[in-house]
Amino acid sequence: MADPSDFPDDQADLARIARAIENAVPKGMDIKTLAGQLIRQAIDEVIDAPRTKRLLLAHCEKTEKTYLGTKIEILLRSKLKLKKGRILDLAVDGTEVDIKHSIARSWMIPREAIGRVCLLITEHEQRGEFSLGLLMCRPENLRIAANQDRKVGVSAEGLARVHWIVRNERYPKNIWIGFDPDLLASILKLRGGTKRLVLLFREYQRKPVSRSAVAAIATQLDPMKRIRGNGGARSVLKPEKVAILSGKYHSDLALKLGLPKLYPDEFISVTPRNDTELALLRSAKLL
What we know:
Elements: H1 8-23, H2 31-47, H3 49-52, H4 62-80, E1 90-92, E2 95-102, E3 108-109, E4 117-124, E5 129-136, E6 142-146, E7 152-154, H5 156-160, E8 163-170, H6 181-189, H7 193-203, E9 209-210, H8 211-217, H9 233-237, E10 243-246, H10 247-256, E11 266-270, H11 275-283
Parallel strand pairs: 2-4
Antiparallel strand pairs: 1-2, 3-7, 4-5, 5-8, 6-7, 9-11, 10-11
Helix pairs in contact: 2-4, 6-7
């Protein structure tokens, strides 16, 4: 098995580029949170649930799945405010970097990226995990056989030399994977976004729900309005002692309640199990 120390200069360059990418993340965020949100956004924009009524990436056409990598590339470059390179996808600290995405870690490297740095992105929708790493695409790191487009794959030797920025970290999961089909059918039978969200948050507690999942079933122009107080799901459920927390405002509170760490675009509902939890939710004016 290869060792990263085989190419110490490569590793120094990859570490420098990784730092530059992390430094480009907007203030108040980190690369793990940013990349995780962008992957969820890209997948959900491809699924386009409010218009297509699809809920899973598996329901999309092959051509749409192929476009997913391009979508992630565009969103990432925009959020990091990094320019395109002259030849490759990204210019980072004076180095051109190609962005390669693969659902199954079978990245295909184009000829123009051989000898250059690639930012490798992959995610696993079933587990809700993603990885982000940098590889110097030397011939020693690539498989010799090429596909019809004259692209080559990353070898096992190459995988051992990846400089991982994020590895096997959680990103906002698609809650519809493995979702109770009877509960989903009951939700979709209801007319009106607020009623659908009330049922979802009443029955699906202590598990993160992404903003896109809310939009998928509350198909009005302003689906977030169906969560808020003043007639939204939060108002309806409050008398039932069911609180809805927002990752943007209540992430610390969620951790105190023993709930999963929330992304800013996630929500979670909870019924207090004891007086301590009830007091925490009341102090936050959620109950």
